[in-house]
Amino acid sequence: MQMQEVTMAGAVGLTDAKIKGLDVPEKGQAEYSDKVVPGLRIRIGASGVRTFIIRKRIGGRIANLTVGRFHDRRFTLSDARKKARSLLNDIEGGADPRGETRKASGAGSGTIRALFANYKKAKAGKRSIGEIERIFERYVLPAIGDRLADSITRADITRLVDGVATAGGKPTPVMARAVAAQLSAFYSWAMPRLHRLEVNPCRDAGKPDRPKARERVLTIDEIKALWTVLEEEGHPWGPAVRLLILTGQRRDEVFSADRDEFDLEAGLWTIPGDRAKNGKAHLVPLSPAAVTIVKALPTIDGSAKLFPSRTDPERGASGFSKALARIIGNMAKELGGPVEHWTLHDLRRTMATGLQRLAIRLEVTEAVLNHVAGTRGGLVGVYQRHDFLEEKRHALDAWAAEVKRIVTATERGNVVALR
User: Fold this and answer.
1) What is the pLDDT of residues 297-314, one digit of tens each?
2) CATH number for the 220-408 domain, one of 1.10.10.10, 3.30.70.270, 3.40.50.1970, 1.10.443.10?
3) Least confident of 9-18, 114-123, 188-197, 280-289
4) pLDDT value of position 106
5) Directed axis angle between helix 112-122 and helix 173-190, to 10°?
6) pTM, entire model
7) Could you read off the pLDDT of 72-87 as tens digits, one per residue?
8) 301 near 308, Cβ under 8 Å?
């Protein structure tokens, strides 16, 4: 095998601009060492391709590890340094990032990304598989996906979770705790497959305190403004959010609903157990107003979904944060003043509070919400088999009438909350 000629240069102060401007060798390859991360180099071939590598001694031999191909937007010097530090950390911990099988029986090898592919298959039947994929693809894999799973420490987990909690302009402790929980479940599954790892690294890792339970309930004036704003929203946000208001069901239960779950003649929506949060099938009586909304929805691309995603008709719509910010902004214009932030889940609390104001019994409200705790928990839940279908229909019809009264009122209230 003919050895390719490599021209070496001393360590230089690399920048993205310098890398783009480096001369292309007429033949062979040229390498330039980074001053910041020891062992990191940029290699330029005669074709002009620029590739980051690490040169490091592994198992007594010098090895070249490919870090990634340089791109001024998709894989910059900063990205290469971050990935190189992770690889070097793995090597210092005794791991071999080349994925070579250890001679020791059952030796754990493989990156988190590689293990996650098998983890997804193992959890494919879970109702939460969509949330598992979303959390890993958005938060976990970009940060530590290329690290060897058995080299991750509780400090690594803590840094990742802290980063999620403080990213952006607003703290997100709930999502940070969700990331911590999903990582812990992943490692509980992975540990029997990892020879070197004796303790789940998520155990004793730091995570934010559980936030206070939200108490936000939309006022009467906010409900009216919201309903008005939704007239201009169009599909899917206008009708979907109105359906949330009228039924009080969970966000994903509405946005991921299939058409065949609805019997419009009977005015009944059946949420199957594999889509309900508590795993129990749920019957939701539809008020005439809710039936009208569903009947008016167009069928898009032949999708079975009531509100299909624009990019994947087999999935429900997404992009909630951006849409909600727009809706709240338009509400503020409608009301002529700022609107306190609310979430789609707050619409569920608003309806439940409204049912209390309408003197609906608590156990009926819990049945509407498909709650199994509270008055329907424990022994009561075991022996109580009444489905409250007629009571739920009465409650949701009453709530729809109340929403209509609020929306059609000619005078604005004094920002009265539904207490």
Assistant:
1) 988 877 899 999 888 888
2) 1.10.443.10
3) 9-18
4) 37
5) 90
6) 0.56
7) 888 899 988 988 888 8
8) yes
The average pLDDT across 249-254 equals: 93
Measured between alpha carbons, how far is 180 from 210 in angstroms, rounded to an integer?
12
Question: Which tokens in the block code for residue 175?
Answer: 């999502």
Nearest to 14 by CA among 38, 40, 35: 35
Write down the residue that tokens 């001053």 correspond to: 35
| Identity of the amino acid at 326 | R
- The domain 6-76+87-92 belongs to what CATH superfamily? Integrase, DNA-binding domain (3.30.160.390)
**Sequence spans of domains, the chain:** 6-76+87-92, 112-193, 220-408
Mean pLDDT over each residue of the chain, to the nearest integer: 84
Alpha carbon distance 255, 237 (integer Å) = 9
